[in-house]
Every structure is written in C-alpha cells, then in structure tokens.
Design a protein that fits this description.
Shape: globular
Structural class: alpha/beta
Helix content: 40-55%
Number of strands: 13
Oligomer: single chain
Largest sheet: 5 strands, mixed
Distance between the termini: 63 Å
Radius of gyration: 26 Å
Strand order of the largest sheet: 1-2-3-11-10
Number of helices: 25
Length: 669
C-alpha cells in the first residue's frame, strides 16, 4: 500500500541538494529544488502542522520507534506503515549526514559553517538539544514536507520554549543570538514563497491550568516579525487574561505595521467553544490555526473542509432553486496576477425548489424560503464531507513523512487520514452571510414594506446588471447594511449564522458525523464573479462580504460599529468552533503618532475580547498609495496587504483582488 510512496520519498530525498548558506545559522533548501514526484506528498493538503515526534526523538529515533512498534502491530497494514516510516526517517537522517559533510567541506575553517555542519551531523544521529538545533530541524522538516510550496507550522513558540529557556539558563545562548536565528528562519520562509503559502505560526495562548504558554521566545518571534516586515510567515496570537504584558505590547506593535500581521484569537471564546464540541480542555488548549484562519489542534489533528457560499444560496432562493440566468459572467483570477482567468462555479447546487418568492405575502414567508434553500445546501455539503471521510476510513495511504511526525500514528500504526489522529477535524465554512443579510434586508424594505417593486421586477433588473434601473438600484442600496450597528439587518445575519451552526449540530445527532462550523470564506472574489448582481444594489463582480464581515464599503459607522454588529451573532459565534473570522480595515491616518495608533489598536483589541469575538485581523492602508501601486507597481513592491488567511505583496494580486482590498478601506476622516 505504501510501496510507491516510500519509493518516491527515497528518490526525492536522495536528490535533495545541499546548498551552503551564505549567511545565518540555518541551512536548507530555499528554491533550489522542487520535487517532480507526488507520491511522497500523497494526501497532504499542507493546511495543518506536522506533529512533533522528530523533535522529541530525532529522525533516527522516530525510525527506531517505528521499527519497534511494527513488531507489535495488530495488522499487516499497520506493520507496513510503521516499517515504511522507519525506512523514510532513516533516509532523512542520511540526508542530514550528507548535508553536514557538504557544509563541512565548504567551511574551510569558517566558524559559522563549522557550527552549522556540527548541528546537521548531530541531527543525523540524535534529537535536538539546543535552540539552534531545534530551529534547524524545524526548517528542514517543513521544507522537505512542503516541496517548494509552503505549509502550516503551528505553535512554534511553544515547541521552541524548552530549548530556548534551557540554553539561556546554561549560557549557551543570548536573546540577541536567538533573535538572529529567528530572523534567519523568518527570511528563509519568506524566500521560499510569498502570499497564499499556508505558512502560519500561532503564538501564545493559555494552558489548561490557566497559565501563560507564551514566553520570552514569543516576544522575540514578534520582534522578528517587526524586523522582517514581510508577508511570510503569517503570524497569529492567542489572547487570554494571563497573557504577559510584554507579549501584548509586541502584538500591538506588529498590528500597527498595518500589513495584516498579528491576527488575534480569543482563548476565552475559542477554548470553551471547542469544549462544547466535545474536545477535552487539555487538548482544546493546544489549538492553533491551520493554513488560513480555521481552528485545529497542534500536533493532534489534520483538517478536511468544504465551503458553502451563502450569497449563491440566496440567488437560488430568489429564483426558486435556479440561477438568475444572467449572461454577463466573465472569468476571474483566483488571487494572484499570474493566475489563469477561469469561470468559477459556485459550490451551491441548483435544483431544490424552496418556493416562489413572488407568491410570498410577507417578508417572513420569503425568509423561510431562503432558510429552506440554505438548509438544503448545508445538508448537501455535509453529506459530501461525510462521504469524503468515509472514503478515507476505508484505508488510504498518505505521506509517510507526515505520518511519522505524529505521536498517535507512531503508536497505533494507523494512517493519519484513516483514524490515526487523536482528533478528527472535519469542517464546513459558510462565508459572506452578511451580504446575504443585506440582500434580505433590501427585499424586506423595498418589496414588502415600501412596496416600490416586485420580485419579478428586481429579477429583470438583475438580468441586465441594473442597466437602465439605476433608480431602483439606489433604492435597494439605501436599505440598512450589516456592519453599522443596525439591529434590523445585523440580527438577520446573526439568525442565518445560528441556523447554519444548528443544522450541523442536527446533522451530527442524526448521523454521528461531527462537523465543526466556521463562519469563514476565502473564495469571495471568485464567488462575486460566479453569481449575478444581487438585490442589495450590488452590481456584478462588485465585492461581497468575506467571512463574517461587512460587505466592503458598506460599513460607514466606524470600526466599533462593525464589532458591535458581529457581536450580535454571539450565540452562533459560541457554536462556530471552527472560528468566526472578522477583519477590520482602517485608514492610514490612525493617529498623529505611533503612541496614538497603539491606543486605538488597544481599544479595538480590548473591545473584541469584551464582546466575545473569537478572531480579529486589522489592516491599515493608504487608499492613494494602493492606487499609486496599481499605476506604478515597480515602485511599490514593498506594499503588503491582508488577503484572507494570509498577507501578500499588493502588486502580486490580481486586479480583481486589488480592487476588493481597496474597497475595504473606509474614507479617511
């Protein structure tokens, strides 16, 4: 079963180059090699961190433990996986030894290179015992796993803390030296790729006893982020009441850079949500984010997911299970300017007749039709996710390198995709709920209350993208919009979100298959092109909401109003244990000084926690600077913006994504 994976892994490991680092204390491939084969990476979506066996045991130790456990395996499949792990991890050790020799030969008495060679030689034989060795091993394992793309890293400060503190206490390492190593590591990650690389690092958090999992190394990692000021790695931080003030201060300074770094997670909300889902507190305290924003357990779980666009669901409900029939759709680019334009089909499935809106006498009747369509779509996607899971459980063969990194796989011999992990993280996303709420609100006002137009008349306007219907469009656009602290529309969004979570809870009770709800969506630009114009007055391809945020450009009452709008969905947020993702974009004139800017951020951060939100990212941009970057991209390669679960160079974005980012920015006051 693992024969081809092992063969391809050995082939790739034997072909890996041994580049000598020109600076820094960490060796490793950057872009010198991209594996041609795919079997070595079988089944790995790169959205989750590797486990930690190689840190505890070293790669030779993993091989030895796997070989010993293979002798006690209960089945031939388990024995084969464990023996495969032993073969591959011994080959990794051989690569480290070969790399050490290459650096030693090149050193020619250079102390820096001799030290790197010693570290590589040590890692070819044993587990890391020093901070620099552990960081070296982390980079090499990450890079071999990523094969030139990227991949999640997880709670790096928690993993590195024991090595750091021991080395500091023993006088082996100074904080300045540790910071140099971290900057070196950060630069290697950035040189390996920028943007949608899934290279997320989670910092801080509380332990099960309430103590702070953060440390001085957490602060140094935030300092490295400020020094490098790059798109990668993507940095997130877990807030809790016992977070050290030095860590919180460093977080605010990272946020003030304005490039979408320093995403906040609220332990006081996320951990209880996971516990209500059935995760024991000790494991829930080990949560991290995956390759984007979703919650998973570091070293304990992988993640499988499916998205569902709520605005597309609204279009189906508005047309009794059919698409609008518009003919003006055009291709769009995913996010990068080099992506090939493609026609993107929505994940929502047409065909379910939820009712004719034109037959409704009240808004409540129409709203129930929408909910019927939405429930159908949620259950349809849930059933598909369940089938994906069941297919995996029939016995799949996945990356041996990945399997060997997990303690539970090493112990059981079960593939990580087929029951080998402690926790199975299956998740469904539903993004853009606020735009759907805006559409419902507009129909409520214009059709059912003011009686200015009928549903068929709005459909006619949508078919031509409101050409010749500008008066109607402006009247629809004038209806209250989510994100302005207006109960009438905010509570519609909250109710939709609550139903989404409840239907997945219902599905779990019926089938036994647990799906974590997440109010999150990453395909908002694609989805804006896959549907027609909408009854909120939005023209085709104009922005729709990302995650559980206001539709870009529609929140005009300031950031505190946006937080208050989201907080009205507290009941759903408590159930959406996958995470409720919330972005705020602020204009660059945040204050007259950095001190004033930090005060503004402190107020928003504290409000986010007080209102019970689980997640928040802040971007701070200058609208005119971004327009200049569009006109003269060669002069603005250093401008960085938040996209969805990552930041990217603005000039690398497709025109569609650039316009979406600019549309988020409120008018400067």
């Amino acid at each position: 079963m693992y024969e081809s994976i092992v063969a391809n892994s050995l082939e790739i490991l034997a072909a890996l180059p041994t580049p000598v680092p020109q600076n820094g204390k960490i060796a490793g491939i950057v872009n010198e090699f991209v594996a041609a084969g795919t079997a070595m990476f079988e089944g790995d979506n790169l959205h989750f961190p590797l486990g930690t066996t190689y840190l505890r045991l070293g790669v030779r130790g993993v091989a030895k433990q796997a070989q010993e456990n293979a002798k006690k395996a209960e089945s031939a499949a388990q024995k084969e996986l464990l023996e495969s792990i032993a073969v591959v991890y011994n080959a990794i050790g051989d690569y480290f030894a070969r790399y050490a020799q290459a650096v030693l030969v090149a050193a020619n008495g250079d102390e820096r290179l001799l030290h790197i060679a010693d570290n590589l030689k040590a890692l070819s034989e044993r587990e890391p015992v020093h901070f620099d060795e552990a960081m070296q091993l982390m980079y090499l394992m990450w890079k071999m796993r990523s094969s030139g793309f990227g991949g999640d890293i997880g709670r790096l400060d928690v993993r590195m803390r024991p090595y750091f503190e021991k080395d500091i206490a023993d006088g082996y390492l100074t904080e300045e030296e540790a910071l140099d190593i971290l900057v070196n590591f950060w630069n290697l990650l950035y040189a390996s790729g920028s943007g949608d690389t899934l290279v997320n690092i989670m910092l801080g958090g509380r332990n099960a006893d309430g103590s702070d999992a953060g440390s001085r190394v957490t602060v140094l990692m935030l300092e490295a982020t400020k020094i490098c000021r790059s798109t990668d790695p993507h940095i997130a931080i877990r807030l809790h009441k016992n977070l050290h003030p030095d860590i919180y201060q460093a977080v605010k300074e990272v946020q003030l850079m304005g490039i979408g770094q320093g995403t906040l997670y609220n332990d006081d909300m996320v951990i209880p949500a996971l516990m209500r889902f059935g995760v024991p507190e000790e494991l829930a305290c080990q949560y991290t984010n995956d390759g984007c924003c979703e919650v998973m357990l570091d070293g304990i779980s992988a993640i499988e997911f499916l998205p569902l666009d709520c605005v597309a669901t609204f279009e189906l409900a508005f047309n009794n299970g059919s698409w609008s029939g518009c003919t003006y759709r055009r291709p769009s680019k995913y996010w990068n300017k080099n992506n090939k334009p493609t026609f993107v089909e929505s994940e929502a499935q047409p065909g379910f007749e939820s009712g004719r809106p034109e037959d409704c006498e009240t808004f409540e009747e129409f709203y129930q039709q929408f909910l019927a369509q939405y429930r159908f779509q949620v259950r349809n996607r849930a059933a598909r996710l369940k089938r994906m899971h069941e297919s995996n459980m029939t016995g799949v063969a996945s990356s041996v390198l990945v399997n060997g990194s997990f303690e539970s796989v090493l112990e059981s011999g079960k593939d990580y995709r087929s029951g080998g992990l402690i926790f199975e993280d299956n998740m469904m996303f539903s993004g853009s709920i606020p735009t759907a709420a805006d559409c419902l609100m507009a129909v409520k006002k214009v059709v059912f209350e003011q009686k200015l137009y009928t549903v068929p008349q709005i459909r006619e306007a949508i078919l031509v993208n409101y050409e010749g219907y500008e008066v109607m469009r402006r009247q629809l656009e004038a209806a209250p919009k989510f994100g302005n602290d207006i109960d009438e529309v905010d509570l519609i969004a909250a109710d939709i979100a609550n139903h989404f979570c409840d239907w997945l809870i219902e599905y779990r009770k019926e089938t036994g298959f647990a799906i974590m709800p997440a109010l999150y969506g990453w395909r908002f630009v694609d989805e804006a092109h896959s549907i027609g114009a909408t009854p909120d007055g939005r023209k085709y391809a104009d922005s729709i909401a990302e995650h559980f945020c206001a539709t870009p450009g529609k929140a005009v009452n300031g950031p505190t109003a946006q937080i208050l709008s989201v907080a009205k969905a507290k009941e759903a947020i408590d159930k959406a244990c996958g995470i409720t993702v919330f972005h705020i974009t602020l204009p660059r004139n945040l204050g007259n000084s950095d001190a004033e800017g930090l005060e503004v951020l402190d107020g928003l951060d504290q409000m986010m926690v007080a209102c019970g939100l689980g997640n928040m990212t802040i971007g701070i941009y200058d609208r005119e600077l971004l327009r200049e970057a569009q006109r003269e991209p060669e002069k603005h390669k250093d401008v960085i913006v938040r996209v969805w679960g990552y930041s990217a160079r603005f000039v690398d974005l497709s025109e569609e994504m650039q316009e979406h980012v600019i549309s988020r920015i409120p008018e400067a006051s």
